[in-house]
Amino acid sequence: MNSSRLVYSTETGRMCPACSQPVAQCRCKAAAQARPQGDGNIKVSRESKGRGGKTVTLVKGMELDADALSALGKQLRSACGSGGTVKDGVIEIQGDHCERVMDALQKQGYQPKRVGG
């Protein structure tokens, strides 16, 4: 039994390990990019660990796909007048803006909860 799988071909480039197709023609992309599952509770917190002492506001638990999460992140950054990013289904906004973020989310019909200090 040969358990080795083709991972790169000079003809087609990188190969998907799941479906053995070229990455550009991968049939399992939809499964790999599945919507992040939240627990239904939107949590707003403040964190500064591992960030050189700089504070960020985190929004976790949103059950949105990547595009909608990115758009919501942009709206929240605009509401706070600050920068930020979306990483691994978590919206990060630079600075301590927990109250502003909670107000903006409540105006959009969400029910966020403040967690942490």
From TrEMBL:
<comment type="similarity">
    <text>Belongs to the SUI1 family.</text>
</comment>
<keyword id="KW-0396">Initiation factor</keyword>
<keyword id="KW-0810">Translation regulation</keyword>
<keyword id="KW-0648">Protein biosynthesis</keyword>
<feature type="domain" description="SUI1">
    <location>
        <begin position="43"/>
        <end position="109"/>
    </location>
</feature>
<dbReference type="InterPro" id="IPR005872">
    <property type="entry name" value="SUI1_arc_bac"/>
</dbReference>
<protein>
    <submittedName>
        <fullName>Translation initiation factor Sui1</fullName>
    </submittedName>
</protein>
<dbReference type="InterPro" id="IPR050318">
    <property type="entry name" value="DENR/SUI1_TIF"/>
</dbReference>
<dbReference type="Pfam" id="PF01253">
    <property type="entry name" value="SUI1"/>
</dbReference>
<dbReference type="InterPro" id="IPR036877">
    <property type="entry name" value="SUI1_dom_sf"/>
</dbReference>
<dbReference type="GO" id="GO:0003743">
    <property type="term" value="F:translation initiation factor activity"/>
</dbReference>
<dbReference type="InterPro" id="IPR001950">
    <property type="entry name" value="SUI1"/>
</dbReference>
